[in-house]
Specification:
320 residues; alpha/beta; D-Maltodextrin-Binding Protein, domain 2; 2 domains; six-stranded mixed sheet; 11 helices; 11 strands; 42% helix; 18% strand; globular
Amino acid sequence: MKKTLAILCGAIASAALLLPSVHAQPTYPAKPVDVIVPWGAGGGADVMARILAKWLEADLKVPFPVLNLPGASGMIGLSRMISQPADGQTLAILTGDSLMMAATPNPIFKLQDSTALAVLLRQPSGIFAPKNSRFKTWDDVVKELQANPGKVTLGITGPNTADDLTARYLATKKVALTGIPYTKPGERYSAVLGGHVDLLYEQAGDVRTFIDAGDLKPLLFFASKRLPAPFADVPVSAEFGYEVLLPQVRAVLIKGGTDPQRVKVLADSIERFVHSADYIHFVEQQLALPDSYMAGGQAQPFLKSELEALRRLLAAYGEK
């Protein structure tokens, strides 16, 4: 009897020792977390990723190496993120250009395969004129195009881009701009500054140097209400009844199905990041909306609604 009791007590003690290992949650993150930028180094998405990675490293005490995997308008890098295990060890940056590609039929990256940790940047798109342009206001552009449809050229990135779809939409409003594609930003900017095209479709933050120097001026922003200073006097599309916005968006994604506790660790750190001086300065430098940030609960439906809007525009105005 004593022997049986001793064996039973030993078994109970052994089980008690095992309990902490059964219920303990592994520390996360405990090893480096990759941050994929689906674009080349030096662009807005890359700069944002590096500022964020620096914060996450300091806040969560593990490395967050930034990996540039450009190609196919962001599809290559985003597909790499989706191909990894749903273990929280890989993040990726989504931009509006990539969202446009995700809106096409049979994309290699599908938004529903990811979870949004946050939207960090929203920049209204706009149409800009060089300082010596004959167009001083958007009304000047409208008047000329109503008299001579297609006579005004617009520098864009390429077919079926946000730029192109916006121009095609405006044509239905009797503002028929002729899009001239330049895939490289530098070529696009040189074209408008050199007088090879009349106007430029872009986000203000991407051409801030030219705006600050007085070489470019915005004539119109695609927004539902006027922007704060220094653009409070620039009209927005809603004032003309244009129902197209297509802002540049930069968001942080993780693979769908990742443990909610790991998602929360990252989302909470990003929530702290957006109150940092580095983030606030970045938003100001990019001339982005002051309220750009959207937490995951807002970001996910926002990105989905943007995706649906892009699909509608592609169906209506995209090249067949």
